Amino acid sequence: MTTTNFGVTCESVEQTTAFSTSPPSALQRFGLIERPSLDYTPEVAEATAPIYEKVKHIIPAIEWPALAPTIHAINRLKKERNAVILAHNYMTPDIFHGVADIVGDSLQLAIEATHTDADVIVQCGVHFMAETSNILSPDKTVLIPDMKAGCSLAESITGADVRALRERNPGVPIITYVNTSADVKAECDICCTSSNALQVVESFGTDKVFLIPDKYLAANVGNKTDVEVLVSDGACEVHERFTAQELRDYRKIDPEVKIIAHPECPPEVVAEADFAGSTAHMIDWVKTKQPEKVMMITECSMADNVASETPGVDFIRPCNLCPHMKRITLGKILDSLVEMREEVVVDPSIAEKARIAVERMINLKS
Ligand code: 13P
Ligand code: SF4
């Protein structure tokens, strides 16, 4: 007998290793690629000049030589790896305008994951988004630049919690917000995002439904329908920090300002706003209405990203940072493409069930 390691003998560890056939990693499948040089050469300056035009309102010129080589390298590596970058609207402007191929809200990114013919998806967002891409495109390699990019909503509930909820409430449809793990989606009847939550709630034709896990989104949707929307106890740590008093104070200072809010905010905050909608709907609202002054009650990068496309609009910028979204940086995206990590793979038996919930949502006629 040899020494033990966490209760397992070294002999048995060797045996397990000898017989294990773990699948090849993404790096083994795709092969090594040389790490590109990150010098700010005249060629890099010229190639990235059109990108700088889009971010010059938010990134000082003095910072560009530090960012441009990484942006240039990522854009080159994307071609070599046949990769596409899906980036959420909360990504910083260097990512959003510099390297993303497709940007959008959770619904748009989920739909785009089904359309791309790239071999590799680099998900610039949080973990549940990468899982959703893998659920919808199991044949693609899905990478997330930082595996720790989580979400307070996704952390608030497990598949076992949903099973218990169903047992206690037989016959009541359970809708899961997309901000959940694959395990939770696998236990629910359908998925929704903040873009389509009301439509999904009303699609069952029942007098009550569960909408989990965001208690504020559920309450905001409940305020717009006759369906009784039952909630669980999750919240977005970014949006729940906004208060109605804060909004009233801004209006007192500047009665002309238009205030638009995300429906993950508490209902009393939404009630004070001129409009509430998903990140994509908020962007569309600003582009269509072109208000003189606007305040986006959501994550900080939204206003930074949309400002370059709406030069006539003055953005007043109170905001809260999402620490999870902010884990995704240019440097980590580059590492991701060079080293083909971190790969997100949902267990196929869970993915199969979760896919039903996500596809039901995508296939709902609008
Ligand atoms: P949407 O982009 O779908 O509005 O979601 C916001 C969000 O918080 C994503 O984590
Ligand atoms: Fe999750 Fe809120 Fe961050 Fe979105 S903003 S990822 S809901 S914690």
Automatic annotation (TrEMBL):
Its main location: cytoplasm. It is an enzyme of class 2 (transferase). The keyword Metal-binding applies. It holds the Pfam family NadA. Its cofactor is [4Fe-4S] cluster. It comes from the Bacteria. Its EC number is 2.5.1.72. Binds 1 [4Fe-4S] cluster per subunit. It catalyses: iminosuccinate + dihydroxyacetone phosphate = quinolinate + phosphate + 2 H2O + H(+). Keywords: 4Fe-4S, Cytoplasm, Iron, Iron-sulfur, Metal-binding, Pyridine nucleotide biosynthesis, Transferase. It is found in: Cytoplasm. InterPro entries: NadA (IPR003473), NadA_sf (IPR036094), Quinolinate_synth_type2 (IPR023066). SUPFAM superfamilies: NadA-like (SSF142754). The keyword ATP-binding does not apply. [4Fe-4S] cluster binds at C151, C236, C322. Pathway: Cofactor biosynthesis; NAD(+) biosynthesis; quinolinate from iminoaspartate: step 1/1. Iminosuccinate binds at H88, S106, Y177, V178, N179, S194, H262, P263, E264, T279. Catalyzes the condensation of iminoaspartate with dihydroxyacetone phosphate to form quinolinate. Belongs to the quinolinate synthase family. Type 2 subfamily. PANTHER family: QUINOLINATE SYNTHASE, CHLOROPLASTIC, QUINOLINATE SYNTHETASE A. This is Quinolinate synthase. The lineage of its organism: Bacteria, Pseudomonadati, Pseudomonadota, Alphaproteobacteria, Hyphomicrobiales.
